[in-house]
Write a structure and sequence with these properties.
The chain is mainly beta and 86 residues long. The protein has a domain of 35 residues. The chain contains 1 helix and 5 strands; from the N terminus they run αβββββ. A 5-stranded antiparallel β-sheet has the order 1-2-3-4-5, with no helix packed on it. The longest helix is centred in the first third of the chain and has 7 residues. The model has no long low-confidence stretch (mean pLDDT 93).
Length: 86
Amino acid sequence: MAINPKLLKVLDKTYAPDERYDQKLLGKDITYITNEHGEPITLFIGSRREDGSIAGERYVRRIVRKPDTLEIQKSHWENKGKVSRS
C-alpha cells in the first residue's frame, strides 16, 4: 500500500526530536516517531487499540543525506508489513 500524498505532506515536516505523535488522518489512526533531528522515521497506520498501539501497517523511512550536511538528499518510506492484534 502506497502512502497517501496528504499523509506525505505531514511526514515531510520537521517536529520535536525523539517524540511520538498520535493523530487521525483520512479516517485512519496514525502514529509516527521522530529521530534525533525531528524527522519522522517510523509510521504506523491502522486502527488504534485501547492501549494506544495500532493494528495495521508499519513503515520505516530510509534517509540519505548530502555529504557533510544534515540536508536530506532523498528519502523513501518502506512498508515493513502488518502489525496485528495480539
